[in-house]
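Work Package 3 (structural annotation) set out to generate three-dimensional models for the target panel prioritized at the project kickoff. During this period the team completed the workflow that converts sequence records into discrete structure tokens, so that structures can be stored uniformly alongside our sequence database. As a representative example, we reproduce one entry of 347 residues exactly as it appears in the project archive.
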Amino acid sequence: MNENRLRLPAEWEPQAAVLIAWPHAGTDWAERLADVETTYVALAAAVTRFQPLIIVVADDALGRHVQRRLDAAGVSPSRLRLVELPYDDTWLRDSGPITLKADGAHAQFQLTDFRFTGWGGKFGAAQDDALVAGLVQAGVFRRAAHKRIDWALEGGAIESDGAGTVLTTWRCLAQRHPQQSREAMDDVLRDGLHADRILWLDHGYLEGDDTDAHIDTLARFAPEQRIVFQACDDPADRHFEELQRMAGELAALRTEDGHPYRLYPLPWAQPILDDGRRLAASYANYLIVNGAVLVPAYGDPVDDEAARVIAAAHPDREVVQVPCRPLIWQNGSLHCITMQLPAGLVG
């Protein structure tokens, strides 16, 4: 690999920090703010065991509130940085920077800033679309070029193996760009992400997911040519046929050198309903940090089995469960609210 060429690192590569935005009464979390803050506190405590955490807050009052909550939880202030910026929502996987890296003697970075449209115009997103530029102006990054790309793409829609292969779903990108062919999208993704090849899944979705089948709810690359994916083993569940087809697609994929991937199916949680609405409880929506994997827990009997599967796919890392049931009320989970920042990027 040309060490001076930009590439999209794998999530398991060394990180400088994790980036999140704190929920507040002006976001869609207002109705259940106390519940969701318990997840954010648990996440902050888990991340800061292993590396720094950068928290975007809407104003000084929220920053003081966050600091009090995390002080009470015993979170080390030396591993926290608060940045004051406006935002519409807290799903920084989709509105945060997609960072490319060149691995030369002096690592170089590019903050790739695709257009964020609120998942195809479902929600207002003007402030979120300006978030990357705001972080740049706040001096969060060092040695990083900021490249704006006027094409809708969210970070949760792509998975990278760090070696030039990107995995995505047709359902999502066809919704974002209904007039474009797969070949045209392939070209945009390879150019914008400096990828060698794009692998597409035509099947897979979760009820309660309003991202139009983001890949990070369905299938994730893991080291040594592994793929962890959300399976469904209940023939009576309406997801069964679609996720079986997705499993078949994953089995048919080949690595760049022509070998099948090593597949790790995740167990299926029992349906979680909220006023009759099914919520998307995906175990594939986990976050990798330095030395650990943070795994969503939903209070389901298979939580521990999901953690064991993820541990097997990431054998050199500690597995930490984070309670995420409050998150899925707003149609996302642990990976969706976070964005990792590669080592060397943060000033």
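The mean pLDDT is 97.
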